[in-house]
Amino acid sequence: MVETMLESKSEGKSETASTAEQKKVKLDISHLTVSYGNDAAISDVNFKIFENEIFGIIGPANAGKTSFLKALNLMNTFDANMKVEGKILFNDRDIHQLKNVYALRSRIGVVFPLPVGLPMTIYENVALSPRLRGIKDKATLDEIVQRCLQRSALWDEVKDRLDSLGSLLSGGQQQRLTIARALSQEPELLILDEFSIAVDPVTTMRIEEVLKELKNEMTIILVTNLVQQARRLADRTAFFLEGKCIETGDTEALFNGQVENSKTTDYIEGRFG
Amino acid sequence: MTTQSSEAMNEQFDRRTLDWYIDKLVEVIVFISGISAIIFVIGIFVFVTMEGMGFLFDSFSFSEFFGSEYWEPSDEDAPEYGILALIAGTASVTGLAMLIAIPFSLGTAIYIAEFSTGKTREYLKVLVELLAAIPSVVWGFIGLTIMNPLIIELFDVPVGLTVLNAGIILGLMAAPIMTSIAEDALKAVPDRYREAAEALGATRWQVIYKTVLPAAKNGLLGAILLGVGRGFGETMAVLMATGHAVNIPGSVFDSVRALTATIAAELGETAVGSEHYQVLFTIGIFLFLITFVINLTADLIVRGIKNQ
Amino acid sequence: MSVEAMPVENLFTESQLNVKNKKIQSLYRVLFLLMTLLLILPVLIILGTLIVKGGSMISIDFLFTDPVNGMTEGGVFPALLGTVFLVSLALLISVPLGIAAAIYLSEYASENWFTRAINLAIINLAGVPSIVHALFGVGAFVMFFGFGTSILAASLTLAIMTLPVVIVSTRESLQAVPHAFREACWNMGATRWQTIRRVVLPNAVSGILTGVILEVSRTTGETAPIMFTGAVFFLPFLPQGVFDQTMALSLHLFVVTTQVPNVPEQLPYAVALVLIGMVLLMNSISIAFRMYLRSKKKW
């Protein structure tokens, strides 16, 4: 245990010496394989994600991006069919060795491709996570709800009807509600899985602005099928293809053609996918 | 800021909160509740067998029990416990009930699922559901007070509490359940089957007869089997409407006596632990096993279509 | 008949074969409609007869006075009250147990042989004849656990008998809540139980309630399971606790119909009307509730 921690730290430093020497490793993924029954969704994925960066993951459909995210959040405990092998270190802690996995999940906010407004009021949607953490004080909850809805650019549209059902909002509004809910967790790691699928372009741009601000407070993983979105936002980017992580690197460098594998450039330039 | 909270969080990772323990506790509670159904089924078998065991292991004779038509438990010198006539009573009533219930429930299910639409369908389903809600003792009462004089008058027979009476009553009781299961089976046939057949110019009836019914065959069979199981186990209605006479029926105008009704009528009069008492529990084991097999078969058949 | 020989306008009219098929179709349609009506007609006839013959006896007095003169006169109060006791206690046992079992099956169990065994047990529990449940009640609760013939023994027997109704209807209501809601909640760090309590149950509760009302209706009408476990033909006093025996409405109908001599003709009809009235009322509430729920979508 101690050994692997030291090892991963030293590895992290040497590899990132050029980009950001002072940055801490948030996530260290090694030999990660996720399979459903006999079908491997991703196999042998290795990379690191640093604190306070936006890490983009691009790749065509069925590249294993969503399976990767599910493994990060230990969703395999709810799905008997899903098998995870390999190691994931979160703040240098092996997430498969934790005594309380709920504490881990509560610090990771997830936004799904299809928005899920829970069938409770807008207020309750955002107040749910604080309540789960044990916050009961009404004033504190009010403050959290307002702050999170403002940051997700939804406040102005719903402030007069916080007691209407979150599940009956429009798709774009539900997606922003989902983001507000994720923010209400006060996460250290925010995962966005193709969030712009159900959102109109104007809202997408507004959310992108928000993400740039949030980066100062948390680490963000942005899974997207829009390569230009990754270019606009991500500090570093990984390219997934057919269950493998083909390569990771500085986003600008990748987009400028400094790649190890020509398929990455092919995908970025739209030749397939 | 993040560094600070990271360390605080690392502690959280190792601390199991109250919610963590509540979650585990609930998991144990619901698991025990989940297996309660299994425990109860085993319990039914064990306890009924336990009470009937004395007779079953001492004086039980397979050929007399199932082969004799003499049910004379109150004969003090040589009581006889043959259930052949009781089986004949149950079988004749259930058989007649199925003759009535099968066509009617299938016909109703087809009408509701394939011909009716919208509001009409809703109303019909509600009425069928209400039919299923009438308690068995009320059906028995109807057999006794309404059907009995009706049969005597219509067919000019001396007694109206007969196979015919109980068969009709039981048929009406079993039909609603069979109808809703059959309707489910018909609904489970994908619409594209119907559309494909209709595109070829078939009429609605041709679509039903040639496409829907064959596809729903297993579900319909399951519905019939469950109806049979229901008829076999029905107690109060057959107790009140059959005439309760030990008899192998020669026609539908004969009175008979059913297995279930015999237990219901005689258990109150027997001394706990007596041979008669134990025989009644032995009949209970027999009924349990028969319905177990029927339900198992019906489930296998119905599940068969779901897996396809 | 070849196409060439036909005038053009006839191409679009129906061929003789088609006309014949249409006729067959409408014939079957009418046949099935008749069958449906013949199946439903008895309910209306029965209700009509009960109301015509017993309706005049029904009054507040009938519901709230004791039967007198060897049960040939008076009301049904002790039987009515006994049924309320029996059903309430049975619900107190079967509803929590049934909901917990349904939560296990819907939220925890994975698809394997063990779950199949549970499902099979539920189907069998529902299919075991009511008189066998009565024998079980006698063997287990009256004799083995020593409750004697009592409200407790009868209610336990009823509870086990109607348990499948609660389990099946609750499981359906739980599974009607989309899986995505659970995943969203899990992702926020909620435990399974927190997810069930805060998201799944609140959205399934009305469906569960519908099933419970249906169970009340079923339990009210049951006779065989309580005959030897706790209900008696006649009691001169009201039960004082769960270890007392009681009268019950369903058994009372059986008794005044078959066991008591010189009963005025109207009386059994009136008792039957009260019983069926209770049952159908519960059923109608359950159905109306379900229809209301269907019209009110939350997602």
Folded structure, characterized:
- The complex is a heterotrimer of chains A (273), B (308) and C (299).
- Helices cover 38% and strands 25% of the residues of chain A.
- Chain A has 273 residues and is an alpha/beta fold.
- In chain A, strand 7, helix 8 and strand 8 (219-224) form a beta-alpha-beta unit.
- The longest helix of chain A is centred in the N-terminal third of the chain and has 15 residues, at 2-16.
- The radius of gyration of chain A is 19 Å and the shape is globular.
- Chain B has a two-stranded antiparallel sheet.
- In chain B, strand 1 and strand 2 form a beta hairpin.
- In chain B, helix 4 packs across helix 10 (217-233) and helix 8 (191-199) packs antiparallel against helix 9.
- The termini of chain B are far apart.
- The model of chain B has no long low-confidence stretch (mean pLDDT 89).
- With 299 residues, chain C is an all-alpha fold.
- Chain C folds into 2 domains: 8-40; 60-295, MetI-like fold, CATH 1.10.3720.
- Chain C contains 11 helices and 2 strands, in the order H-H-E-E-H-H-H-H-H-H-H-H-H.
- In chain C, strands 1-2 form a two-stranded antiparallel sheet.
- In chain C, helix 3 (77-108) packs across helix 6 and helix 3 packs antiparallel against helix 8 (192-221).
- The longest helix of chain C is centred in the first third of the chain and has 39 residues, at 16-54.
- Mean pLDDT of chain C is 89; it is low at 1-6.
- Chains B and C meet through helix 2, helix 4, helix 5, helix 6 and helix 7 of B and helix 1, helix 3, helix 4, helix 5 and helix 6 of C.
What topology does this entry show?
The complex is a heterotrimer of chains A (273), B (308) and C (299).
Chain A: H1 2-16, E1 25-36, E2 39-50, E3 54-58, H2 65-72, E4 82-90, E5 93-94, H3 101-106, E6 108-111, H4 122-132, H5 138-151, H6 155-158, H7 171-184, E7 189-193, H8 201-214, E8 219-224, H9 227-233, E9 236-241, E10 244-250, H10 251-255, H11 262-268
Parallel strand pairs in A: 3-8, 3-9, 6-7, 7-8
Antiparallel strand pairs in A: 1-2, 1-4, 4-5, 9-10
Chain B: H1 2-14, H2 18-58, H3 62-67, E1 71-72, E2 80-81, H4 84-115, H5 118-133, H6 136-155, H7 163-187, H8 191-199, H9 204-215, H10 217-233, H11 236-241, H12 259-266, H13 275-307
Antiparallel strand pairs in B: 1-2
Helix pairs in contact in B: 2-13, 4-7, 4-10, 5-7, 6-7, 7-10, 8-9, 10-13, 12-13
Chain C: H1 16-54, H2 60-64, E1 67-68, E2 73-74, H3 77-108, H4 113-127, H5 130-144, H6 151-175, H7 179-187, H8 192-221, H9 224-227, H10 249-258, H11 266-295
Antiparallel strand pairs in C: 1-2
